Amino acid sequence: MDLELTETQAMVQKTARDFATRVVAPQAAETDATERFPRAAMKGLAELGLMAVNVPPEVGGSGAGVVATALAIQEIARACASTAVMMSVNNMVGEAIARFGTDAQKQQHCPRLASGEYPTGCFALSEPDAGSDPGGMRTTARRDGADWVLDGAKQWITGGSYAGVYIVWARTAGPETGAKGISCFLVEGGAKGLKVGRPEDKMGIRGSDTVPLEFDGVRVPATALLGQENGGFKIAMMALDGGRIGISSQALGIARAALAESAAYAKERRTFDVPIAQHQAIQWKLADMQTSVDAAHLLSMRAAWLKEHGKPFSREASMAKLFASEAAVRVCNEAVQIHGGFGYVREFAAERHLRDARVTMIYEGTSEIQRVVIARSVLA
Ligand code: CAA
């Protein structure tokens, strides 16, 4: 693995960093407090080519690759984790359509996902009773003439109130077929029979929209099938392998912010006549935080590099996501401790970082699911 960034990767990183500092960071606390969809930030990201970084230019993407995608998400997450998760999901949806879609599907959706014409793209896999085990999903799609008709419910759908397109997984064969009887469909935002529920009242990433969806006889044409009939589960798994690099990047960005703010605070805040940075108790915390951040960075970059070079990366993506998310929670928890009482109030961002980091251990596969993926690969 080459850790030296290419010119393109360095440019994407700088572009994301500048935008994060100038536009995203100043709005982050308000986005969290008001739970408002960060529309301007999302649009700005699209204008900079950061909403479809690894999508080929022929269908409107930036074509800058996987490592560049990860770097961009890290930079945005450092400023605002809510914006970063929607950016990560949008990139994942664009990549999935670009990889598995027909020419017509790609031409219809990818340019709109890339340009911000769609405020977001959504990944509708989880259900109220099927999160870690999507093979147990109950949403169905049945053939009716030339169409498919979808019925069922989805849950925890990031950006679901604003989607231009949803990738929706549904059962196209009996429940006994498990993962082998699932297909995926492209459903346009505002489709008849699609009801978007009330946004969840979440602990963190409060500026990102998370909603349940109901499908009541949603009719889509045969051309809305993404990939092969009954081949949808593998598309979900392959997309999630990439998505997990995105979430590890998000976790890393949050942890970096918490560490940088802690170091700055430790140099300012005085106790016993000296800045607390001079106390070994604080220095050891900062040392452990930096070590965790760097280890998470290396794991994430390795997974991204493998994916970029067309090599197997599923296990490495799970390792990156597992480690980075758990490291981020530890780092953010220590950041609160270093800030003392100020870490527990909204005047400082430390408490937001901890609330934001926590979900990275849950979505796109819990830490327990990442361990399942890793252990299966170790034992294979
Ligand atoms: N790539 C390609 N194919 C894969 C694969 C991968 N990474 N993982 C599994 N498959 C294939 C298998 O080879 C198998 O195919 P065959 O039948 O042809 O052999 C098929 O898929 C079924 O695989 P498994 O038997 O391993 O499936 P399983 O039911 O045991 O599940 C699991 C495996 C890893 C636990 C999977 O269910 C999983 O990842 N669960 C977590 C789901 C998840 O991450 N949800 C997140 C929701 S999205 C989200 O959070 C987005 C957001 O909004 C932020």
Secondary-structure map:
Layout: H1 7-34, H2 39-47, H3 66-79, H4 81-100, H5 103-115, E1 120-124, E2 140-144, E3 147-158, E4 163-171, E5 182-188, E6 194-196, E7 210-221, E8 225-226, H6 232-268, E9 270-271, E10 274-275, H7 280-308, H8 314-339, H9 350-358, H10 367-379
Parallel strand pairs: 1-4
Antiparallel strand pairs: 2-3, 3-7, 4-5, 5-8, 6-7, 9-10
Helix pairs in contact: 1-3, 3-4, 3-6, 4-5, 4-6, 6-7, 6-8, 6-9, 7-8, 8-9, 8-10
Bound molecules: acetoacetyl-coenzyme A (CAA).
Acetoacetyl-coenzyme A is lined by residues 85, 89, 123, 125-126, 132-135, 158, 179-180, 233-234, 237-238, 240-241, 314, 363-365, 369, 372-373.
Give a summary of the structure in a few sentences:
This protein has 380 residues and is an alpha+beta fold. It has ten helices and ten strands.
Question: Which features characterize this protein?
Answer:
380 residues, four-stranded mixed β-sheet, single chain, globular, binds acetoacetyl-coenzyme A, four-stranded antiparallel β-sheet, alpha+beta
Explained architecture:
The chain has 380 residues and is an alpha+beta fold. It has helices at 7-34, 39-47, 66-79, 81-100, 103-115, 232-268, 280-308, 314-339, 350-358, 367-379; strands at residues 120-124, 140-144, 147-158, 163-171, 182-188, 194-196, 210-221, 225-226, 270-271, 274-275. The protein has a four-stranded mixed beta sheet, with helices on one face. A four-stranded antiparallel beta sheet has the order 2-3-7-6, covered by helices on one side. A two-stranded antiparallel ribbon has the order 9-10. Helix 3 runs antiparallel to helix 4 (81-100) and helix 4 (81-100) packs antiparallel against helix 6 (232-268).
